[in-house]
Task: inverse folding
């Protein structure tokens, strides 16, 4: 695989287009998105249903190919890679976190975290896989829960396992699709705090969300509408927004106890 140029953005999109065709019907899901994301950024991609944000996320994750335009990841054109190179890129450079956790129900937490290591080249030994998975669980505060099954974990703990799985290959970029969508307010605060810690450690994070209070944790917000970017702003009041969310949670707790 071509070695990336470290002097360019982690993500560079130029006039990115995605068109779906069903018979004679043509749907333009993404209409010329141009966007740069630098190493170490924490970016929220927002927009209503049908805005194109999830389609963009799929293309960022190399799960879908654009119909037009260009996508450079670490300076490497994704369009120039073959299927094997794309799979290798996804496994080594990208970590994925989903709204529905996507854990295997009959597999323990540590075994779920190990899964990406089965596709590593060269393959890791059993001992190395287990050690790296346990270290990833430690990072998300679940070092003592490695042998628990998803059914034995809370929603927040399951999402932490999913985040550990995303981290086990030490990716440069984590893509999170509505990671707090199935969580209550308290657990959402915990998960976003974890994402902040990961970002502070140098991991670039791009997160799709429709929740303004969750986007407030990010350093930058990109808003999409009808397949286009309509605003791209720095979040100047991150601390204030996070404090307001914490106060809201505290008020909810007091109301329940009253």
Result:
């Amino acid at each position: 695989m071509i070695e990336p140029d470290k002097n360019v953005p982690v993500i560079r999109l130029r006039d990115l287009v995605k068109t779906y065709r069903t018979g004679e019907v043509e749907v333009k899901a993404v209409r010329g998105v141009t966007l740069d994301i630098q190493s170490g950024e924490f970016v929220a991609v927002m927009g209503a249903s049908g805005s194109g944000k999830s389609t963009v996320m799929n293309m960022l994750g190399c799960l879908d190919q654009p119909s037009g335009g260009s996508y450079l990841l670490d300076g490497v054109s994704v369009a120039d890679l073959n299927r094997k190179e794309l799979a290798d890129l996804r496994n080594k450079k990208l970590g994925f976190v989903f709204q529905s956790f996507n854990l295997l129900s009959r597999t323990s937490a540590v075994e779920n975290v190990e899964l990406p290591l089965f596709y590593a080249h060269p393959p890791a030994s059993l001992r190395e896989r287990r050690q790296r998975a346990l270290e990833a669980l430690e990072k998300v505060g679940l070092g003592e829960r490695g042998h628990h099954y998803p059914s034995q974990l809370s929603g927040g703990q399951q999402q932490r396992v999913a985040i550990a799985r995303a981290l086990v290959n030490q990716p440069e970029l984590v893509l999170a699709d509505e990671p707090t969508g199935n969580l209550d307010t308290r657990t959402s605060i915990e998960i976003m705090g974890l994402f902040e810690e990961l970002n502070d450690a140098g991991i670039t994070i791009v997160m799709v969300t429709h929740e303004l209070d969750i986007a407030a944790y990010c350093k930058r917000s990109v808003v999409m509408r009808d397949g286009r970017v309509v605003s791209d702003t720095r979040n100047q009041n991150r601390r204030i927004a996070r404090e307001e969310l914490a106060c809201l949670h505290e008020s909810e707790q007091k109301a329940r106890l009253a």
